[in-house]
Amino acid sequence: MHTDQAERVQAAFAAYKGGRVNLAYDLYRQLADEGNAESQIFTAWMLSQGVGCTRDEAQAAIYYERAAALGHPAGCFYFGRWLTKSGEHAQAYACYAKGAQAKHLPSMFRVGYSLARGKGVNVDLRDAYTMLKAAASRGHAYALREMALQDLRGGRGLLWIPIGLLEFLLALCWGIAVSMFNKDTDLLRG
C-alpha cells in the first residue's frame, strides 16, 4: 500500500471511530473503488448494515466479491457468507476454501462445516474433522461446537458420543468466555 493510500485508510478509520460515518463511508468507498481490498470489505460491511449510507445488500455483495477476487481471505469469507445466504452453497464453499488456504480462521470453520453438512460439497466427515480440529485448536468456538455435534450424532462412532457431550459443554463455556471479553473476534465469527 502506498503512503498516500495508507494515510487515507487511516483518515477513513479515524472518521469512523470519531462517529463521522458518512465521511468514513465516502473515504472507504473511494479507496475500495481504487482496488484496496480492506476498504472493499469495510465498504461492503457499511453497505450491508446501512452505516453512513443507505443499506444495499446487492452493492455490498459486489464489494465483497471484489475483495474475494483479489484473494483477500476475509473477502473470500464474507462473499462466501453472502453466497450461502443466497443458497449458492457450491460457490460459497469455493470461497471458503480459498480463505482457508490462507489459514483464515472463520473460513476454516466454514469449510469444515460445509464438509460435515454437505453444503455445496459431498459430505466427508474425515476431512471435515481435520478442518474443524485445525480451527478448534486455534480457539474457534463454532468449530468446537460443530465437532461436538458431529460426535453427539455418532460421526466418529458410538464411543465418541459421551465425549461429544463434554466437547459441547467445553464449546459453550469457551464461547461465553470469549464473548465476555471480545465480541468482535474471529474466534466467534462463523
TrEMBL record:
- Specify whether Transmembrane helix is a keyword of the entry: yes
Q: Which Gene3D superfamilies match?
A: Tetratricopeptide repeat domain
SUPFAM superfamilies per the UniProt record, alphabetical? HCP-like (SSF81901)
Q: Which keywords does this chain's UniProt record carry?
A: Membrane, Transmembrane, Transmembrane helix
Q: Does the keyword Membrane apply?
A: yes
Task: Please list every transmembrane segment annotated in the UniProt record, as residue ranges.
Answer: 157-181
Can you name this protein?
TPR repeat protein
